[in-house]
Amino acid sequence: MNEVKNLTICDHPLIQHKLSILRSVDTGCKEFRELVSEIAMLVAYEATRDLPLRDVEIETPLEKMTAKEIAGRNLAIIPILRAGLGMEPGILSLLPASKVGHIGLYRDHDTAKPVTYYCKFPVDISERIAIILDPMLATGGSAIAAIDMVKEAGVKNIKMMNIVAAPEGVAAVHAAHPDVQIYCAALDRELNEHSYILPGLGDAGDRIFGTK
Ligand code: PRP
Ligand code: URA
């Protein structure tokens, strides 16, 4: 794990190995989808490291003991449509009691600015820790818009989970929302002239859903 201020790069060997397959142009839709979910689960392991615990009395086959359990049902998972949906199964297999909200955003092809088309949150989201999911953090426009919406819903503790992030996007999110910790599997080199991440993995939504 590699940590600079507000950015945690989860570079465990298992994640790096899976990410290399994910990036490859030769990886097909089915395997790509499975890998996005698996990597999301592994990154979530780090993103949930600070979840509050409480004591619980249990009995092993040998004796009684005071053990730990996660305190309360306090998470809201918020995938950004479309590509964030690919991360949802992996996270929910780890955190099945989470509630789920969805934010619909797409980048305008000409301006690369986010356009919002959908938003639905759990009614009690303001009492929860929100983890926003999107495999790609490029310019940061979509992440900033999503964080704005989650904050407007009253959430105080927000984490951003990506698979591949660009330095430009990380800087933009940190400037707009310095309180939000970003967790990713890799910090790539730069954006190209179309605001795609280099070396990146291409268009995550198209590769997850087979739309190109
Ligand atoms: C992609 C990606 C992010 C956004 C990142 O979505 O999944 O949401 O771009 O770019 P940004 O950091 O520059 O905002 P896209 O707009 O392609 O929408 P889609 O998932 O519906 O294809
Ligand atoms: N969205 C993607 O899917 N890929 C990129 O490289 C940038 C934005």
Verbal overview:
By secondary structure, the chain is an alpha/beta fold. The protein is built from 6 helices and 16 strands. Strands 1, 2, 5, 6, 7, 8, 9, 11 and 13 form a 9-stranded mixed β-sheet that branches. The protein has a 3-stranded parallel β-sheet with strand order 10-12-14. A hairpin with a 5-residue loop joins strand 15 and strand 16. Helix 1 runs antiparallel to helix 2 and helix 2 crosses helix 3. It starts with a strand and ends with a helix. The mean pLDDT is about 95. Bound molecules: 1-O-pyrophosphono-5-O-phosphono-alpha-D-ribofuranose and uracil. The site of uracil has 9 residues, from helix 6.
- Please summarize the sheet with the most strands: 9 strands, mixed
Helix content: 25-40%
- As a percent range, the share of strand residues is 25-35%
Secondary-structure element series = EEHHEEEHEEEEEHEEHEEEEH
Separation, N- and C-terminal Cα atoms: 34 Å
The hetero molecules present are: 1-O-pyrophosphono-5-O-phosphono-alpha-D-ribofuranose, uracil
> What sort of overall outline do the alpha carbons produce when their principal axes are compared?
globular
Cα-based radius of gyration, to the nearest Å: 17 Å
SS element count, helices? 6
